[in-house]
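Students often ask what a holo structure prediction actually looks like on paper. The answer is less mysterious than it sounds. You provide the chain, you provide the ligand, and the output is a string of discrete structure tokens encoding the 3D arrangement of the protein together with flavin-adenine dinucleotide.
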Amino acid sequence: MAHVEPVSVSPSELTTRLAALREALTPEVRTIRENEPLAPYTTFKIGGAADLFVEAHSADELAAAVVAAREHEVPLFVLGLGANILVGDGGFRGVVIRNRAAHVETDAASGRVWAESGTVVWEPLIRQAVAANLSGLEHYAGIPSSVGGALWQNLHFLSPDRSRTMFIEEVVESADLLMEDGSRETVDHDWFDFGYDFSTLHIRPDVIVLAATFRLAPEAPEVLTSTIESNLEWRGARHPPLATEPSAGSIFKKIDGVGAGRLADWCGLKGTRIGGAMVTHKHANILINTGGATARDVRHLIGYVQETVEREQGYRLSTEIGMIGDFGDLGDVPAHGWENEDGFTDGVPPGGHPEAHADAERR
Ligand SMILES: Cc1cc2nc3c(=O)[nH]c(=O)nc-3n(C[C@H](O)[C@H](O)[C@H](O)COP(=O)(O)OP(=O)(O)OC[C@H]3O[C@@H](n4cnc5c(N)ncnc54)[C@H](O)[C@@H]3O)c2cc1C
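The corresponding structure tokens follow.
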């Protein structure tokens, strides 16, 4: 997480530090608000308020805000598009810095695209690359992400012929980083040690990405457009639309050769709901906010899916989204109180695909 773990500080001391930080930041950043609800800044549309909320409109503003928060010893969280996180109902004690630094420079001759880390990948960044007839980013059309979030998680999607998974690391040449001591460093691709849903950023919460340079290849515009259209169509057919069914994309990490969604589907979990959170009928690895879902609802539904899949299929699913802020006392995952749309309201859901049960080796 690009954040500082909450230091043990009394509420009154935190209030004093936040007031001092607010004063220090006022000349540096244009947008600064207190007790700002975070739900609107996430794709799940869930989560309580941040004590202090700042928007950074350039890499310099982002760096200034992070450095000031550290100087004042205020816990901080750097927010991109909020597409891979669940914010707790109790909100975030400290400062949330929403990264909107979005300056992009394209050099068609060398194929290099330099983008500040708050640049939104789809559509602005991809459109800019396509306008310069450059290939490498179009594969991620339709995925909500900032450049910083994309490097954090190593954004990925299927290749145009669907034969393999493509990763954004394939086009990352270098990145400009803000280090813990406030210095800036430009590092190359290898620094990130990219893996599936992984980069060094996961284990270096002290490092913030300010900008990235992508190295793209020349391509005919019709090829780029065709990839974009086919990927949007693919997503539209398989994923719930964000505009009407808010989500954080896939909740559980992939399990090689099986797939978290397939395991949950085999357990008959599509349509299962707790409060306002539901496993969508479109994809059993995606939980949606049907309206008014709380973070507590989502955590309980996650727990329910994990327990059911483990009991029925022998796999323990782990979450891939980040849990941010204060979730309060979640209590025990309820044995009752959930139902799916077919009215199944208690006990073990129908499921356990025969093929899955036959495959004993995976246990
Ligand atoms: C509908 C939907 C579909 C999705 N489909 C896919 C998909 O096909 N493939 C895929 O890979 N993902 C997918 N995702 C997940 C999500 O899009 C990616 O994980 C994305 O990269 C998140 O970017 P973000 O800007 O929203 O990051 P956020 O959710 O805002 O932040 C995620 C983490 O990155 C850190 N971070 C953000 N910016 C910086 C920075 N500048 N420096 C350091 N750390 C930073 C944050 O602190 C946080 O820890 C999907 C999500 C949704 C909602």
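The chain has three domains: 11-99, 104-236, 247-362.
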